[in-house]
Design goal:
Structural class of chain B: mainly beta
Number of strands of chain A: 13
Distance between the termini of chain B: 12 Å
Helix content of chain A: under 10%
Structural class of chain A: mainly beta
Order of helices and strands of chain B: EEEEEEEEEEEEE
Strand order of the largest sheet of chain A: 2-13-4-9-10-11-6-7
Helix content of chain B: under 10%
Strand order of the largest sheet of chain B: 2-13-4-9-10-11-6-7
Radius of gyration of chain A: 17 Å
Shape of chain B: globular
Strand content of chain B: over 45%
Distance between the termini of chain A: 37 Å
Radius of gyration of chain B: 15 Å
Strand content of chain A: over 45%
Largest interface: A-B, 56 and 57 residues
Oligomer: heterodimer
């Protein structure tokens, strides 16, 4: 069955509670990407979602996107991994100075990027620590499901994404979405 | 300024079997596409296969991991279609996130969650090795003569960035 989208797409029926808040597409390399002043969204949105497509410098093995909240770089984060590398599934955890997300692409192959979708649940609540979940991967390397935790009840005011190695490359995209409360 | 997105572009509800679903004339005004497939196929052991822009070259590759209720597994492969996960003749729900589909400076990555409670829970990372913007998506069921079953619903959404 062929479904031509011309008419349906043009009508663009749009409803619901999922909004694009901010987006950054790199036109030069960057050592990190930050979304700041997020408290302005607290009264409208219950959850946040990051959608990222990234490429890092270097040509070595799989490297992760890393996440920090509010510029905090102390050892207050934890990540639980389920990882498939094309041969086996492994499960492990780590505590440290950031949350791990899915891996990015690198310079080993032209046009090679990785992608991840990250849900940040109840980021503005001050009665609970912050939890993330992510699905990410790069087809030539690995795939991950990761649960992340920031051990703080502070409301999220900024999100910083950092490449595990080198810099983010041109064309890397970082988009932040809000999901409204009822 | 926040902009409402996650726009429904097309929904097809099958009233009979169908061997191929094609979303065509996809506009380049969004950043990501999301397809949700809810239903089943006509075969006990079958996967959804995907092609972009009618490309039948060996330009698709993927890595996956999953569990079958007693053990885990992971693998990788490549081919002339993307393998988008298990879709047998039992109720299944799959979500396909096609990232940066309209970008012309990168290969296209699709993240897949494939869920069939009676068989597997699987996730995939897919790559279509082309920098061409995606304008059509063809979905079929693996195996000769297999089809999407009546009652299957496929929904396409666009997400701006």
């Amino acid at each position: 069955m062929l479904i031509p989208l011309g008419i349906l797409a043009a009508s663009g029926v749009s409803a619901g509670s999922f909004d694009l808040l901010e987006s950054q597409v790199l036109t030069g390399t960057a050592s990190s990407v930050t979304f700041s002043s997020l408290s302005t969204y607290a009264s409208t949105y219950q959850h946040l979602q990051l959608r990222i497509v990234t490429r890092m410098g270097g040509t070595g093995g799989a490297k992760s996107n890393l996440l920090r909240f509010n510029g905090i770089s102390t050892s207050s984060y934890k990540s639980q991994f389920l990882l498939g590398n094309g041969s086996a599934v492994s499960s492990f955890s780590g505590s440290g100075t950031n949350i791990f997300l899915g891996i990015g692409g690198n310079l080993a192959t032209s046009n090679r990027f990785g992608a991840a979708v990250i849900d940040i649940l109840d980021p503005f609540e001050t009665t609970k620590i912050k939890v993330t979940r992510s699905l990410g991967g790069e087809a030539a390397s690995e795939l991950t499901l990761i649960s992340g935790l920031w051990n703080s009840t502070a409301a999220v005011s900024s999100i910083t994404l950092i490449p595990e190695t080198a810099d983010y490359q041109i064309g890397s995209r970082f988009s932040l979405y809000g999901i409204k409360a009822a | 300024m926040p902009t409402n997105t996650y726009t429904p572009l097309a929904t097809i509800s099958l009233t009979g079997t169908d061997s191929e679903i094609v979303f065509s004339n996809i506009p380049n005004t969004y950043r990501d596409l999301i397809i949700i497939a809810s239903g089943q196929s006509t075969a006990a052991n079958a996967n959804i296969l995907a092609r972009f822009n009618s490309d039948s070259g060996s330009n698709y590759s993927w890595v996956y991991m999953g569990g079958d209720g007693s053990s885990t597994f992971s693998g990788s492969s490549s081919g002339t279609s993307g393998d988008w996960g298990n879709f047998p003749n039992a109720q299944s729900v799959s979500v396909f996130q096609i990232m940066d589909y309209s970008a012309t400076d990168k290969h296209k990555t699709t993240l897949v969650r494939s869920n069939t409670a009676s068989t597997y829970a699987i996730a995939y990372a897919e790559r279509w090795a082309s920098t061409t913007a995606i304008t059509s998506i063809s979905l079929t069921i693996s195996g000769s003569g297999n089809s999407f079953a009546s009652g299957t619903i496929l929904s396409l959404y666009g997400v701006i960035a």
